[in-house]
Amino acid sequence: MSTPTHQAPPEAPPAAPDARARRIGLGVIAAGSLMVILDGSIVTVAMPAVQRDLGFSPAGLSWVVNAYLIAFGSLLLLAGRLGDLLGRKRMFLAGTALFTAASVAAGAATSPEVLVAARFLQGVGSAMASAVGLGILVTLFPAPRERARAIAVFSFTGAAGASIGQVLGGVLTDALSWHWIFYINLPIGLAVLILARHALPADKGVGLAAGADALGALLVTAGLMLGISSVIQAEAHGWTGGSTLGLGALAVILLAGFVVRQATARTPIVPLRIIRSRNVAGANLVQVLMVAALFSFQVLVALYLQKVLGYGAAQTGLAMLPAAVVIGAVSLGVSARLNARFGERTVLLTGLALLIGALGLLVRVPVDAHYATDLLPVMLLAGGFGLALPALTSLGMSGAREDDAGLASGLFNTTQQIGMAAGVAVLTTLAATRTDALRAAGETHAAALTGGYHLAFAVATGFLVAAFAVAAVVLHRPRTASSPEGSPS
């Protein structure tokens, strides 16, 4: 299958924006991504304060996170395709505006119902903006070397944003109140909207008639929504619980119907040609495995620091900050040059090897760990994410046609959300089950918790090993426009 990488869509302007405008555009996309990522992690630190203030039940409190996750993860594919049809800039602006307005509503919430509804709307806005971000970026930077540098910046915001969010969430909650973890999005969102109107390239899209598959949109959105809900249910009711199995089975049926629909529809929302590319399909599979391991790493390490070592919320964020610093230094400083010199596949494999080492060290972390000797080496090895994610993003976008860039971006973000949800559900459930068994066997609370985390980190290491194997076998370096890549082999 031919996949020309430099051909612009017919409605795109013939001349690319100047260098200054492209740099501002990159900053806008990165700031929008940072705002979304910060919101995902900043909330977790403030959850106890939210519960005390609004009177959430323990079960109801989880919906502060789940409402956002369900809307975000299930709408990404649809939003990505709509960006291709209606215009990516238009979709980015509308999503950012909705996210910003919903953030203000969340900050002003005085009841659980209002906060959960606002969080759902935040997820919708996040999906709209995030789904097209990479598509806009690859249009702004068509040259391979410049695109690699831009993707490194984009990847840094995602990788570092979560750690920054934990620190910022603790500081804002302690110094002001939990309301400000949402209000902080207002100045960021307004700045992004103002700059985006001038900095992002105008595109009209190809029109709804070119891909308005309403039935396909309904099937994939409902299937993903139910699938993510079933994974969330597994945390509370177990993988064999009736609600988990029921939602999961219905999600599989809907998604299978979606695939059949895409194979037969005249204007499919997700043309199946996109997953025939080895790099697109392989990169998305690698991402599910890698993100499942590393997002749970972030969650479980934070729990270990607080529940076993007795760290506070802000102290936990600061303890994890070296990982964000190293990831930033690697992704911004050297990843683009390494990708250009050695190829994305080689850099990805190197990054995955470092991450396997980081998770492997956590398998033996003791109950009475010393930060400098037991945890700081883990944070430094986590810098492998700064190598792996930019390379993986380049590979994942390389197999998509120019007019499918929004869809490919939405697909890449969707598999990221699926990896996050599945990884946290699987690994936290394993950790809790192992902890209960050790407590029943007479272990102390701290020792039982640590044993549960050991099991979760061992399984997460296995995910990374599987990701390494898939990357080694399936992925290959993108070819130039004169030697198109993307044919299945």
Automatic annotation (TrEMBL):
The keyword NADP does not apply. The chain crosses the membrane at residues 24-47, 59-79, 91-109, 121-143, 150-172, 178-196, 208-232, 238-260, 281-305, 311-334, 346-363, 375-395, 407-432, 452-475. Keywords: Cell membrane, Membrane, Transmembrane, Transmembrane helix, Transport. Its main location: membrane. This is MFS transporter. It is a multi-pass membrane protein. It is found in: Cell membrane. Residues 25-479 form the Major facilitator superfamily (MFS) profile domain. The lineage of its organism: Bacteria, Bacillati, Actinomycetota, Actinomycetes, Streptosporangiales. Coiled coil: none annotated. It comes from the Bacteria.
